[in-house]
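Record pair follows.
FIRST:
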Amino acid sequence: MNSAPLPPLDLRIATAMTSRVLSAPASRVWPRLRRDHAGLAGFGLVGLFGLIALGAALGLAGQDWSIASGGRWEPASTMHWFGTNVLGQDIFQRSIHSVRLAFEIGLIVALASTAIGTLTGALAGWHADSWADDAVVFVTGVLDSIPFYLFVAAVAFALKGNPWSMHIAMVATFWTTTSRLIRAEVMRLKQRDFVQAALAMGMPVSLVLSRHVVPNTIHILLAQAAIVFVAAIKSEVILSFLGLGVQNGVSWGLMLAESTQEVLAGQFNNLLAASIPLFLLLFGFNLMVDALQNALDPRQELG
């Protein structure tokens, strides 16, 4: 019985080397994470908030955030766990719904920024010192030179209240760091033997990048995506607080903006219900990112 022909030897060697490069660090990730108790605590916090966000997305909680179900500034009770705001809306429901919004914005911005940064960085790194590389470096330099919040304000004004204006402004800013990191890593990886072997066998550049080069940057992409996730959440809170973010909804930023007037009247429930979950989520993400960077860093192999 005839068997399928084997690929050329050099190509099999290149594929095997790629698999070895990927699997060797991956096999050590979990033992490193397991020893990092602070990192595990961070994963636990992020996982807890992720479950809350999923519950809100599925309609299990936080759906009555806009309903005035109580009186003005009611104290915490069994009916309203965090009390009510000046309009009689349940503060707990608003805080739960804000978790969903935070994860939604963080996820969209992180995925879009990582995709754009990976594509442009791989293109620039592979074609270093070419017009493509010069164009990517020029664009990233220009975008990084623009103050972030001025850029967001300009985008929001140009799009005239478009609900995606904040997302677009964040993505247009956050992809640049990912692009620079991937560019540098691709410039290093394209000199490796397993990449040169694949090229010598006539494999198309697009296939070499997608099969052998970009997969070996996963340790950078995971850590950078988590960093962008955190940056997007913080930026949304600041922008919403300034009136440039969420318009037709609720977020921790809007709750903090409302609390500026309520604190003067001695009402702190809105402030605490927004600031404490925000602090815990960002604290958990920072612990998680530190743990990921330590676990995925190839330099740890030298220790």
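SECOND:
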Amino acid sequence: MNYFMRESPYRSLIVGVNTLVPLYNEKKMPYINFDNAATTPPLVSVLQAINNFSPWYSSVNRGAGYKSQISSKLYEDSRNIILNFVKANIEYDTVIYVKNTTEGINKLANRLYDKDKNSVVLSTDMEHHSNDLPWRDKYNVDYIMIDKEGRLSLKDLENKLKKYNGLVKLVTVTGASNVTGLLNPIHEIAKITHKYNSKILVDGAQLVPHASVNMMQMGSPEHIDYLVFSAHKMYAPFGIGVLIGPKDIFTTGEPDYKGGGTVDLVTHENVIWTTPPQKEEAGTQNLMGVIALTSAMKTLKEIGMENIEAYEKNLTHYAISRLKNINDVEIYGSIDSSNERVSIISFNIKGMHHSIAAEALAKEAAIGVRTGCFCAHPYIQKLLKLSKEDINKLSKASDIPRPGMVRISFGLYNGTNEIDYFITALTAIIKNKDYFIKKYSNKT
């Protein structure tokens, strides 16, 4: 591996990389963004695409005007761009636009709900709340276990599929953990899932921006039945997300949001719903979000997702190699091979609350990181080895400092020079631990 990279070769493609931010002492420094798992800055090409299209922006579908026709065509043609990006089946699958991954999963949970009290959804111990909570009030939910290093147990997956003997309606699993970055073998999971006549949903929020994704063709045991992801994590703001799945699943039944664009005919006594995907996209469509996402995909495809994946794995391997040699730093999740994770690393400094470490990095070094439980409380609790008694105490006392971690996450524009600077800052914070605890302790 090449550990002598410095500045990212893709840095110039990103907006705002040289922005100055104030420190605690009011001096200003260039911002280092290591919070890309939460959201990414926009690509230059995305903002250019938005500006270039703005004069043509108009209503989507049913408008007879020239601008409306242009807008409608771009909006509808974009679905094939999305399907091609993840190698979905254009004839069989459809793209439904939503606000984000969370809305996409909620939409699918509503769509699949059949009021069968015996139906089971298998989630996992490592899921984001968005791939857990939407299922709880509609299905019997069980959770695939993790091992001591935070990896998903495929043995437990198969055991649970056998245990429920055909009652599992869906196996829903993250493609990559937003806590540890650990990758799940989604195609192997799909093979096991289909063996027991169930379907698989992949939460691709942390996977699609960082690796090549292939939903595979229908009929393949490795086929991914449903995929969701968000544009704002792949350099395209403006609030768009994607739910991909078989078109026929959305043909029957009522949409969860009802209104303009979802109907073919309405009387006071009856409603005839239109066909999917339009049936599932009530109200005015987020055309600008679609323009942003497809522009981002074009740029990412030009770079090559395999190149982005290799580059970010190099960054991650380099960061882990430096972090694991620092006393008092504990890294979570398997670190045996950085090839088994996307560019996310979570850690703690022994004897320092995670919020203090994050605030010190921000206010002393202009480094933006994430802190807390990252909307994955059960996974964090297991990784931190919290007992039921510990969790019970936390649930009863809001004044107890909340457990959690510090998370760093890289984008294609980050470089080893930024990691070196981060390691220097982190080492200084650890060396002066008592000073920083006292300085920022009121924040815990």
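COMMENT: The chain has two domains: 11-43+305-443, 46-301.
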